[in-house]
Predict the structure.
Amino acid sequence: MDRRKFIQTCGLTIASTYLFNQTTFASEFKRNPAIKPIVGSWFEFMHHNAVEGTYWNPALKEFTTEQWRLKVKEISEAGMEYLVLLSVADSGKTFYPSKLQPRYDFVCDDPLEAVLSAADEYEIKFFVSNDFWDDFRNVEKMMIDTEIAKLREKGMEEVAGKYGHHKSFYGWYFPNETGIHNTIDEMTINYVNACSRKARELIPGCTNLIAPYGTKTIRVNDQYIKQLERLDIDIMAYQDEVGVNKTKAGTAARYYEALYKAHEKAGRARLWADIEVFRFEEDVYKSALLPARFERVLKQMEDISPYVENILIYQYIGMMNKPGSEAFAGHESSTTLYTDYMNWLDVQNEIIR
Amino acid sequence: MKKNIWIFFLVMFTYTTVFAQWKNYKIENGQSPKNDVRSISFDRQGKMWIGTWYGVYKQKSDKWLIQGVENIYVNTIFIDDTNTLWVGIWGGGIYKAKEGKEWKHLKEACPSISANVITADRKGNLWVGTFGGVTHFDGEKWIFYKAGQVALGDNSVQSIISDSKNRIWIGTNHGLSMFDGTTWTLYNETNSPLPDNDVYSLCVDNKDNLWIGTCNGLAIYNGKKWKTYKKEAGGLPTDLILSIVEDAKGNIWFGTNKGVTVYNGKEWTTYTVENSNLPDNCVQTITFHNGKVYCGTGSGVSVFLR
């Protein structure tokens, strides 16, 4: 072998070894076009349950405007295009300067402006919350109390007035959780339809979303289809409830399959999924949330992909962080979920890094 | 044309008689929560009872008769030696019914509103896994065990089994707990080779090996050594194991969301919708009774024919 060929051979060997090392982890996954990627996530300025938010609430409080921008950028770079803001207020305080309630004393004066500006920049579509102006734990009261409804509408007017100009203001999210047992009840229809009316009055052409739970108890029948027809909502992202241990991973497909048929028949709300990418550190609802293992999340995604238009997650904040992120909020294992998901996404997108 | 029709029927007949591996039962045609079979049990007369996502059904000849209340979400049923039916309901707690009649709600048996699993230990005493801990009937009273007070992984109990020493093994979302009557021991990813803390299914074979089905792989524990299996090694169609049972020949059957797999100690064989007449790949419960393997799927009950 002459010197030139020898150098060429060595170079190729080194290059292929390097590439192999770079792609070894990614190649643990096999490309499966049938699995839909995560296209969006819930978003929050503070987790509403202090124990659950143990690992990221303290960091969010200290986030600067620039860190909020970086966080939105990071999410966008993970291939996500939708963000669903859980709340604009919580326990009598707001996450933006408001005339209705005092503002949370966070480092960033106006986190809502910070993230919507960043979302404009990174072409994210935001579903902005219209609620948690009162005690969100009393869901029924939140839905039917007329005084709370008035406050909610004032809040929507204020939010639309201050932030409605953002191109990222895609629509509204009505966060009082719609628990479905058997079918959609009248209280839910009245609440959602009233919110939708006000939402469109303020932001014409907005797209609105709810995320019902109790998915596995829904009786998909003619009555359910009729209720769907009456419900004035654009997108229903049903919770898969794997993180709260109510459903075993990989077994939710039948519920979404039945819902797919019902939504097709009703021809109104689009069917999305809200998959839970968390687990509890100890007991359900009584301990901190931690990121789930990606192997479990992948099973959740694979299970329901055939039946839903889009997969959103609950949630990027706290559960996923890019390694080395300057806007880090969450348990250290959140980088593992991020890295594993991104490696899988690279394989799906046939990207070799 | 007439000849073609005869050939078609001959092919169909040959397929269904020679190649069909499963005899399938449905409560009603089409997709229905009535066909969503979560649990299978047999009474002393050998009649099959099934717990579905709509209610409890008893097989009578080729018909299925609803038992008790309709439109409930049955997670588990168990028929004890006295022919008493025990029913665990999502959002409904525990009911018992002697000979399937006179349903009685047992508040003390279920500290949560939902029960996931009911079984009996080797002495015939009941164990109930709920969404809020474990309860045990010692013959006189119900005893309640809760995570934090004992080494129970957490209070979301997914599976329970007893071994030949009457030790109780409990699968939770935070590992596998063992209670020997005195002491509780917790096995998890941190202190053992358990492949995942979400323990969905358990089985004790005739050699007293414990088979542990998790959300992310299979483990076998013989009391001293652990062995783990993953899909990548070949054999299993997925790492998600929803149910496990041993048949009379010592074969181990695994219900997964990608079909049912049988392991004879050497070879693994998987039956799916794609390669057999199994109606649904989601096999969430398996029972062995009187020489036959019964699978509860999302689309009815399937009995293995050979």
Remarks:
- The radius of gyration of chain B is 20 Å.
